[in-house]
Write a structure and sequence with these properties.
Largest sheet: 5 strands, antiparallel
Structural class: alpha+beta
Organism: Nocardioides zhouii
Number of strands: 7
Number of helices: 4
Strand content: 25-35%
Keywords: Signal
Distance between the termini: 99 Å
Radius of gyration: 34 Å
Pfam families: SAF (PF08666)
Signal peptide: 1-37
Helix content: 25-40%
Number of domains: 3
Domain SAF: 50-109
Amino acid sequence: MFPGLPPARRRLRAVRQQLRRRRRVIAALLTACAVLAALRTVAPPPPETVDVLVAARDLPSGAVLDDDDLVRRAFPADLAPPDLAEAAAGRVLAGPMGRGEVLTDVRLVGPSLADARPGETVMPVRLPDAGMAALLRAGDRVDLVATDPGTGETRVVASDVTVLATPTEVPDGPAGGALVVVAASADEATAVASAALAQFLTVAWNR
């Protein structure tokens, strides 16, 4: 192929010719590598994340949570809601949750529940009829009606209160009935607490 040249020179010349023939392909590859390196250099770092608890499935209001109801997921830190719940096993859910929804303290029955109802009083109310309590759902707006067992007189002690939680567990004991959690005005909360001591409480749905 290259007569008169030493073997080493012939091989070198052959390599040079091959490189000339493929210089466009090589140039394109080098350009692509340079672009890729530049993109990696200017690409923003991955967003900071925090671990959050989310519902593993649809959960009803009043559910007593256990470890199988929740899973941990990485969530963008700048989008995470405040008051994330850190531990929830054994806590009661104040309202229904959809699968994948982030759990916060205000979704649980407890002191933080009042944070979601500024200007209102969050209070438990024992309804003497557990079956009546079982008909309620979080988000219902009802009137609380008290009946005097001695005179039969009936009056509305709180109007248009919001049901926040309906625990599914009905405790045994002499008290009976079932507890629900409602949000009412301060004046209505006082009237409800007074009526609950000596009168029969029931609920009426309003529109």
